[in-house]
Design a protein that fits this description.
Layout (H helix, E strand, L loop, with lengths): L4 H16 L2 H4 L4 E2 L5 E18 L3 E2 L4 H4 L2 E2 L2 E20 L2 E6 L2 H36 L1
Antiparallel strand pairs: 1-2, 2-5, 3-4, 5-6
């Protein structure tokens, strides 16, 4: 049996996806800075793939009409894919150390705020205590 037309659609779409997404998409090419640091980008790749088709009513194939009355069904179909590449982090190596710097701004902002709350509250307590001490000293004079 000959290949079905949907197989051709799927294989061409998958070949195109394979050409677009490779290892260098996830772990990027290293970049060296003038001061000797090496920066390697790390990305998250998401992809979606869909393919479908339908055969319509049978029609008689003119080229095979006289041979063995072979009936061929017309085919209509399509396929598609979507790829999303999102930076996740950077690996920074150099000067005898290696660091992972995350890019996720939402998580970083939230964690930074959570880290700042104790500092702000202690600063607020210190200032209010200093203000009370100043007010007590002013009243004694």
């Amino acid at each position: 049996m000959a290949n079905h037309p949907i197989e051709g659609l799927m294989s061409s779409t998958m070949e195109s996806l394979k050409d677009m997404v490779d290892v260098n998409t996830i772990v990027g090419d290293p970049v060296e800075t003038p001061d000797g640091l090496v920066i390697i980008p790390i990305s998250k790749v998401s992809l979606g793939f869909a393919s479908g088709g339908s055969e319509f009513g049978k029609i008689q194939n003119e080229s095979t009409e006289n041979k063995d009355n072979n009936l061929k069904m017309p085919f209509g179909g399509g396929s598609g894919a979507g790829v999303s590449v999102q930076p996740v982090a950077f690996i920074v190596a150099g000067n005898g150390q290696m660091k992972l710097l995350p890019v996720d701004q939402g998580a970083n902002i939230l964690s930074s705020i959570m880290e700042m709350i104790p500092k702000i509250s202690s600063s607020f307590k210190t200032k209010t205590k200093n203000n009370k001490d100043i007010n007590v000293n002013v009243e004694r004079d």
